[in-house]
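Thread: quick sanity check before group meeting

JM: Hey all, I'm pulling together slides for Thursday and realized we never actually wrote out the predicted structure for the chain we discussed last week. Dropping the sequence here so it's in one place. If anyone has concerns about the input, flag it before I start.
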Amino acid sequence: MGLFTAILELPLAPVKGVIRLGELLRDEAERTMRDPTVARRELEQIEAAQAAGELTDEEASEAMNAVLRRMMPPEGE
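JM (edit): ok, ran it. Output follows.
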């Protein structure tokens, strides 16, 4: 039975591979987005842009809040 199933599923192997690759990419992107080092670097860049006058206080506050919200776990976890 295992050989028969493997032969029938063989045409779907590329699709399964693409799905798995997508899952791996999603997981890595989520891990990178929640990395405290990346968040700290982004917050420092926002502060530097604000100090240089590239961002208003309101824009900087919104950007910082976006970074901090991204660090929070999604609701339901």
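AS: nice. Residues 35-72 form one domain. The chain has four helices and no strands.
JM: adding both to the slides.
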